[in-house]
Each structure stands twice: as structure tokens, then as C-alpha cells.
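Narrative of activities, Objective 1.

The group set out to show that a structural description can be obtained from nothing but a protein's sequence at a throughput compatible with the screening campaign. Below is one input-output pair from the validation batch, recorded exactly as produced.
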Amino acid sequence: MQRLSPEHYLDFDKFEHRAIFERIEYVWDAVKHISGYVQSITPGIHGEVSSQAIVDDNVTIGQGTLVEAGATIRGPSIIGNDCRIYTGAFIRENVIMGDGVLIGRNTEIKNSLLFDAVVVPHFNYVGDSILGWRAHLGAGAKIANVRIDGQPVRIDIDEKSYDTGMMKFGAVLGDEVEIGCNAVVNPGTLIGRRTIVYANASIHGYYPPHSIVKLHQNLDIVKRE
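Output recorded for this entry:
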């Protein structure tokens, strides 16, 4: 099914790490291969890292990248060129970032793949996920990766459920997806290219490309005594 393939969500033409998507059937299968892929890296610091940042030895950081004081990067991880890792950011092991990625204050990334120009700027969590080119999370938005009932994560699409085979899997955000502030993207979510999700929404399942996911709420205004 086309909607389960990597090409439905992501453009690989200029992405350095596109080999991770070779010979996979479902887009979420790439998450399973992140840890093996990063083991092959040649560590090296080629950008500017503050002496007050914590960076493990088995991390590679590209040219033009800035890692501010108070940031932590655990390895193995790959950070591309011209990225910005700001104060309080926590990059846990098995993270792959393309070029021009911005990780902001008090944001945590774990076992995830971020394409070029992704922006995850303020108080975000991204676990076991894939974020396509220029995907953006508003302040406080979270991508959850564990079901509350502790069961394996499943994908629900077209009235059919697919077992991902993973206990931890967050979401796939296609190229140029926008997630509003304080939204929650629940485990097992697939979002097509250029889709917008309203602030404070809680979503799960499949959302087609070029869509707007609206949150409707009722507000009562009463006289203050």
C-alpha cells in the first residue's frame, strides 16, 4: 500500500542517510535500523561545541554546527552540518540528524531520524520517530512513543491494523508537516506531507497529505460575580 511506503512521506533526493530506507516495506521499519546504522559512524567534532556542553566520544558533529552550553549529546549519534543545538537540549543515543536542524531549549530527542531543516524548538519530546524535511513542532508539542497500556504499537489505517513489531514507536511526520503548540502525537501516527495539526490536538492514526487537522472546542463565557 502506497500510504505505508517511505516515499509517500519523505523526499530522499538530497538526504545523506537515505540508505537506511533501502529494502524496507513499511516506513516505520526505518526506526528499527537506526541503532545499527549509527554504529558505523566515524566519530568526530567538526563544529563548535561549548566547553560546558556534554558530548560523548562516539558522536559525529558536522561543520558549521553549534552546540551551546548546557546541551547534552549521547552517542552513538550523528549530527549534520549547520545545526543548532541550544541550551538544555538532550540528544539521547541513536539519533540521526540531517543538515540545518534546530533543537531548542529543554527538548529531548531519542532514537529518531530527523531530515534536513527540521525544527524542534521549545520543550518538545521526540521518541522513536521520523521527521521529514522541514517538519516543525510548536512549543510544548510531544511525540509519544509508548502506549499507555504497554502493548505493542499498531498502525490503524483504512479500517485495518498493522503490528509494527515495536514496543516503542512514535510517529512519522512527512515533509513540511506542522504540529501546533502543546499537541500530542500518540504512538503509531502517520502524517502525510504538508499537513497542519492544530494546537492542543491529540492525534493517532493516519492523516493524508495536504490536510488541516482542526481541533474544535466550546468555550462558555459567564459573568464574573
